[in-house]
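Predict the 3D structure for this chain.
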Amino acid sequence: MGDDLPEVVLTTVVSVDGRITLGRHERLLDPAVGARWSTMAVGGPFETRHEQVGAGAILEGSGSFVDTDAVAPDWPAPVVTDDLLWCDHLPAAARRWFVVADGRGRVDWSFTGDADLRLHVLVCRSTPPGYLQRLRDLGVGYFVVGDDHVDLRSALARLRDLLGVACVVADSGGTLNASLLREGLVDVIDVVTLPGLVGGAGTPTMMDGPPLPPDATPIRLRLLDVRVERDAVRTRYAVDPTDPEAAGTPAPPARGDRHAARVSLPFPEPTAPASSTTEVIVRYLDYFRDQLASRIESLPESEQRTSRLPSGWTPVQLLNHLTHVERRWLEWGFEGVPVADPWGDTRDDRWFVDDAVGVADLLAALRAQARRSNEIIEAHALADLGRPGPRWDGAPPATLERVVLHLLQEYARHLGHLDIVSELAGGRTGE
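Done. Predicted structure below.
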């Protein structure tokens, strides 16, 4: 087993005050509790986000299925010998895995999987042996990781090495979330905030567990993007891997080069469910923007403003150009609103960036423009015509569909250009 672990995307749904359920003993799987919680829901916002991640495993804790104070049932004595019982058990293969950490052996399973998803349990040396026998009797696999509690780092390594899982969605309660975060195992946090308040001292939040030690600092996050859908807000953050004391614990062991690098959006696979063509287009635009930013950030500072091609353009000029391209086509063009200096990315018919403008400022401008562009796209039908204005140079305005297809080809073409430059400069490349 190596140090290279799966990417972990922590997903959760919270109220505005950060609660993930209605009370300490209220589980959302209880139909009555779920019905009360759903009064905050607004039509199932962002319901396809798990499919967008494309994870090979979903990770949860036992607290999602039994009360927080529940104890293990009185399991019958095992019939399998110890040398088999305490070894990892893999009775079957699966396309995707539903992985549950249950070191105390508290869940008496009725659902063990279907054609698409198969249950797999994480246990430890202190788990009741009869529980392991019960899992074997049900045909459920398990990994024995840790002595007195489930060792999540070891568990993730085995998911990668033994089940071939490259990405895990952690969709659990505050205790497991806190353990993953404190151990530095989370790459991205994906939070949907519902328009409601719960309150209550002791009501579980998205991150519970032990309090922050007096000499520790909060975990640092970096905003990736923000989306709004029917009064719900989805925020995605990268967990800062450069601050080893952010979690209030010693720096975790190295996770390999990929985890020291920038976390990127997954490719929008054609098989991932989507509610509309508009959603597919926005996913591709978000992916292309993210790839553009990651290429720029992977380059040494000197290479960001250096040209390696006879045409003379630099990576920061390309970044500035694509930000202006979005503004010209969607704001100045389709919406027909006045835009100050719509051709501000050029000077003397060449791409241009003032040396005083930093890369961080250019990336922030791209993210701001992305939010504005997505708002425009999602507020209109693809068949809507743009408003007359100077962008069309006397021609009839184009439909939104034609505009966004043009933007997609701009990004795809220029990312190919940037891949060549990045490879020459020793930076990151794509497929």
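The radius of gyration is 25 Å.
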